[in-house]
Design brief:
six-stranded mixed beta sheet; alpha/beta; 11 helices; single chain; 43% helix; five-stranded parallel beta sheet; Isopropylmalate Dehydrogenase
């Protein structure tokens, strides 16, 4: 592989300079990569980590790998499930404005996030968004949802799209271009994703989805490549210029994101949206740049959320 360039991620991190570090509950940082990732993000001023997990184990990992955690608060929790639940409680209490997954399963932290009584649910469907730095594309591209909703309904997709648009706004995009993907760019009654794409576009026209330009169905090639869109004679402000790629289901999204990562040399920062606070789902395979970009994205989302709450209070 060629050496990866991170200009787009560097720009995201640069947007956070001058912002106060965001309090972040890190659930179960009990291995080197998760603990070091939190500390490195703190050193850049992106987050103020609250390390949640077995205190003795966290201290042992820090000592073994010479990671200085002396400046950070540690909240003791006996095991991974308790770590996730405690991190979520800190967010509910307003002591943390974002969550970060440590060395526990994604299912464990998400189960705590979506619990009806004690979790972080809102009126929105929770969804995941990859913020992808693809060397061959001149802009950051979002892929959603490739990690949470397996077979989203049309109503789910309405929330998935709105979550992604709101994320784009938090990252400084005034009117993101949203491509609703399918295998084709024409409506085919035999292909449900084409019908749902058309419905989502009409929902945007009627104000049920706001803040972005939607078009679909679009195939992947004519969503991101102007030449392909012109060959198909698609006249659209979105075709060939999409910022957000909305996939039909999790399988399609997972394959698209991994294809970009492993065949197009892309990096994939990730964040869960639609809860009371943004949730960073890191992977042990993530590069340092990807981890830091995920933290930067979550910090910008937290900032946008604070500003929305302030506007609501003033109004």
């Amino acid at each position: 592989m060629s050496e990866r360039q991170h200009d787009k991620y560097d720009a995201l991190i640069a947007r956070c300079k001058g912002l106060p570090a965001t309090a972040c509950a890190v659930a179960h940082p009990c291995d080197e990569s998760s603990l070091r990732g939190a500390v490195e993000a703190a050193e850049l001023g992106l987050i103020r980590p609250i390390l949640v997990g077995p205190a003795a184990r966290i201290a042992a990992v820090a000592a073994q790998f010479r990671i200085d955690i002396s400046a950070f608060e540690v909240v003791d929790a006996p095991h991974s499930v308790a770590s996730a639940e405690t991190a979520v409680r800190l967010a509910r209490e307003g002591k943390a404005e974002m969550l970060m997954k440590g060395s526990l399963h994604s299912d464990e932290i998400m189960a705590a996030v979506v619990k009806r009584e004690t979790g972080l649910r809102t009126s929105r469907r929770v969804s995941h968004c990859f913020i992808m730095d693809v060397p061959a594309i001149d802009r950051v591209v979002f892929v959603t949802d490739a990690a949470v909703n397996i077979f989203p309904t049309l109503e789910d997709k309405m929330h998935i799209v709105q979550n992604a648009i709101d994320l784009a706004h938090a990252l400084g995009m005034a009117e993101p271009k949203v491509a609703i993907l399918s295998a084709m760019e024409t409506i085919n009654p035999k292909v449900l994703s084409t019908i749902e794409a058309a419905a989502l576009c009409k929902m945007a026209e009627r104000g049920q989805i706001t803040g972005g330009l939607l078009d679909g169905p679009l195939a992947l090639d004519n969503a991101i490549d102007l030449g392909a869109a012109k060959i198909k004679k698609i006249t659209s402000p979105v075709a060939g210029r999409a910022d957000i790629l909305v996939v039909p289901d999790l399988e399609a999204g997972n394959m698209l994101a991994k294809s970009l990562s492993f065949m197009a040399d892309a990096d994939a920062a990730g964040i869960v949206l639609g809860a009371r606070v943004p949730v960073i789902l890191t992977s042990r395979a993530d590069s340092v740049s990807t981890r830091l970009a995920s933290c930067a994205v979550a910090a910008l989302v937290a900032k946008a959320r604070r500003e929305d709450l302030q506007r609501t209070v003033v109004a």
